[in-house]
Design brief:
Belongs to the cation transport ATPase (P-type) (TC 3.A.3) family. Type IB subfamily. By secondary structure, the chain is an alpha/beta fold. The chain has twelve helices and 13 strands. It has two domains: 168 residues, HAD superfamily/HAD-like (Rossmann fold, 3-Layer(aba) Sandwich); 106 residues, Calcium-transporting ATPase, cytoplasmic domain N, CATH 3.40.1110.10. Helix 8 links the parallel strand 9 and strand 10. The radius of gyration is 21 Å and the shape is elongated. The chain binds adenosine-5'-diphosphate and magnesium ion. Adenosine-5'-diphosphate binds next to helix 3, helix 5, strand 5, strand 6 and strand 7.
Amino acid sequence: SIPLGYFGGIGAASRNGILFKGSNFLDIIANVTTVVMDKTGTLTKGVFKVQDIIPDNISKEEFLSVLSSLESHSTHPIAKAISQYYPSSKSPESVEEISGKGIKARIDGRQVLAGNTSLLKSFDIPYPEELDKIVETTVVLAIDKEYKGFLTISDEVKHDAEVAISNLKVKQIKTMMLSGDKDALTQNIAKKLAVDVAFGGLLPEGKVEKLESLKKNPKEIVAFVGDGINDAPVLALSDVGIAMGGLGSDAAIETADVIIQTDQPSKISTAINIGKETKKIVY
Ligand code: ADP
Ligand code: MG
């Protein structure tokens, strides 16, 4: 039978907009040693806005119309920003998402790629090396294996992200941020928020590797917090998988052990506090 105290814990959590899928997760979360977080949608708003548009050897209109037509077929937050910024007018065929890199399709009989510079590298398409030095999220376009320019888009750090990290520090819990976005940008945000360690430019399998290497130490009890876009494997691998609501995907809500129904990362420490309080009552 489940001790009464656990019901109190689950109830207190739910009044705070936090759903525990089982009372065992109250115990696990109380003992967490490291909180690993996704950047986009977890610590940042995940709502991108188009900034600068730098076409190369193509008109700005053609650049935007090809890019938008391609991105209108993706549900990635980056794609949404671009397809909302400029109307799509072409019908791409054989659209393929390339996880952690971008999207590929045929438009008017031409092969079109949109994504990060790793996508271009994997297709052996040369691009100006300055691109990798820009400390902003960039989306690069290539048509028929030729670089056609890029645009920059920016996201904002959530208002309570800094508090969320400092609350964990006070509890002597280590913090780690993982991202598929540029490493330079990832390090910048980590520094601003005082996150202990950060890794950018990761493919989904790279995030899994980071979690596995943490878990090699049997003393580590790891929580992963993500919005769920490409995060299901790491959510499943962690000792306690936490999905952030608001933007959370269905797959994440299914895989997660704990669901934060608001978009506030400060609820991570609230959930840990409730776990700790519940333990005091139960034992
Ligand atoms: P994260 O959620 O950590 O940003 P993702 O795996 O979702 O990681 O994406 C990693 C990177 O892949 C993005 O930062 C972007 O550069 C590129 N990318 C993914 N999907 C798209 C897309 N539809 N359009 C453009 N770039 C994309
Ligand atoms: Mg993601």
